[in-house]
């Protein structure tokens, strides 16, 4: 079973139906975003009434009758600030295996202010060697499901905790952080997004990841775990411009649902799951996640479906050339004159798409890390299902 099912990444559980964001200033100029969820029980109250839409845009269910609307309120604060997209865009987001091999030949990476991190999923059936057995020389390991998130919540570690983690890895303010992993770098890309979320300025991916280094090029792996001096990196509050919470997505989804599921809200929604998941035929890809999934199947109204593997070279695991990536998304219906929100199941595959669109193409992109595990288990949010069925726990299976 994939760790996408058995672990929770840093995803924000933010409630249901019609919601609003309220911002209050905390200490140090940080913005605390309070997520307030309102569940409408009466159609006359002016809240969301369409729970599910098909291809024809017909409502699968509507709330009727009269009366007052009851609210369920989840007052969850996410500490962060809006720093825009400029600080996360960089000219050289990818490094090659040749580049890394040359740096390793030059000596200790920490003396070159380079920190190499392995962030892998380590599935039992992977053809690649797990870090505990051998890894790229001088690489340290980061356990994504434990070290980035708070225990028993769907929220990230605090700013201070991220500072402590980064310093323990030997990261300085001006360090170049190079990330790689298995499975075409999807968890490494997730780590890249998390590092950018906390203000790291020079974060790159090893293009092709462990697959290219080990399987394709048969380069050296070692058992030694490096010892590095403590770094001086200081995390910043989360950059809320590259993270979308459920209320942000709901605002877009409601506009699209009101337009018969057409994308009219001025924000692209990119669903990077499999076509079967997007269409609502399955809850998750059963070959990968053994059939476990959300109680409602389908996609967020107005989203386009570009499976994340479509932008990766099948042989080397590297990203496709920039213009090919851009063409794939534009042909799918993405208008890059508008901002984009990417989502998947728990946010890590969407981070891979975020890396491609934000870092390689330089576009304005955020990750809805709650993704389908939040959306598909939330009562009252609009869902589109291309099968015409009520699929999932509450439908005909």
UniProtKB/TrEMBL annotation:
Reactions this protein catalyses: thiosulfate + hydrogen cyanide = thiocyanate + sulfite + 2 H(+)
Q: Recite the UniProt keywords alphabetically.
A: Repeat, Transferase
**What Pfam families is this protein classified in?**
Rhodanese (PF00581)
Q: Where is this region: Disordered?
A: 1-30
- Where are the compositionally biased (Low complexity) regions? 9-20
Claim: Glycosyltransferase is one of the keywords in the record: no
Q: What are the residue boundaries of the Rhodanese domain, all occurrences included?
A: 110-222, 263-384
Q: Which Gene3D superfamilies does the record associate with it?
A: Rhodanese-like domain (3.40.250.10)
GO molecular function ontology, one term from the record:
thiosulfate-cyanide sulfurtransferase activity
The record's section on PANTHER family has: THIOSULFATE SULFURTRANSFERASE
Q: What is this protein called?
A: Sulfurtransferase
Species: Nesterenkonia cremea
